[in-house]
């Protein structure tokens, strides 16, 4: 009877594959062959149905069959969530995505919680610059209609910080909205690293103050040789005089504004751009130079009359901040350096 039952076994009860006589394991799925008791009918199980997941992007209409992407690889719009149960039963697709230009690995479009995807980071940085430009021109329009050609005031100096103050809000909102980790921006909340960041920040602020003195000397030299075509020296002296003659409450407000502006700038340029470019380039010095170049060029557009002197100062200052950040990848290093630097500059001007 046992031999007769063995002859009746023709299919694997797990996957439905044909099994030759006397085989112990299924040649298809590798599972142990189950021998049925005499008298039991053997039926071939239906093969597992190949299921697919097809999601349509609500923004651009792209059809996404990937099970691991939570956002559209074309426009980054959030997709309908796929349950873990469905993911386990869906047959795996080739890990390639067609982006209307070429086939690319879908892993390239996966958003990680602790590191920037290159496309993701550049999109976030681009949005920040877009916000900076819009707020800047709105501010210029407001000042031109409201204040005309009145002498510079402490209120104008405070207003001039608004564009750089607000453009760093978007990355923080983005991280919070996506429920990603703030370590993605370089924030390290460990107590030892925070204390170390304070020490590094003090050192960095002194280096920035030295650069400030060199910048002032260069501006004075340009003015002395008659090349100060935009009256940079006189404009800076006027600003410093306004700050020096302002009430203490305005000085406090200016200091707080400069501190928040510095944090905002570091979130964008170090937290987003620096960390994003590190995914592309393995050489840290190249990343530092690229970020410094982008930083100084962008600020040059918004302070064009100040010309070469401000470009060089911002370029060198950004290199210093990049080196401070690369010490241990902690954004608090550069934030502390900027905070101490802002406080020292205001004190030096006020006294």
Tell me briefly what this model is:
The chain contains twelve helices and four strands. The protein is mostly helical and 351 residues long.
Description:
The chain has 351 residues and is mainly alpha-helical. It folds into three domains: 1-48, no CATH class; 55-109, no CATH class; 118-350, no CATH class. The protein has twelve helices and four strands, in the order H-E-E-H-E-E-H-H-H-H-H-H-H-H-H-H. Strands 1-2 form a two-stranded antiparallel sheet. A hairpin with a 6-residue loop joins strand 1 (55-56) and strand 2 (63-64). Helix 3 runs antiparallel to helix 9 (248-277), helix 7 (191-224) packs across helix 12 and helix 9 (248-277) runs antiparallel to helix 12 (331-350). The chain starts with a helix and ends with a helix. 24% of the residues are buried.
Number of strands: 4
Strand content: under 5%
Report how far the terminal alpha carbons are from each other.
Answer: 107 Å
Mean pLDDT reading: 80
Structural class: mainly alpha
Could you describe the largest sheet, including whether it forms a barrel?
2 strands, antiparallel
Radius of gyration: 31 Å
- Give unreliable regions as ranges: 1-8, 45-50
Assembly level: single chain
- The dominant shape is elongated
Strand arrangement across the biggest beta sheet: 1-2
Fraction of residues in helix: 55-70%
Number of domains: 3
**Number of discrete helical segments:** 12
Order of helices and strands: HEEHEEHHHHHHHHHH
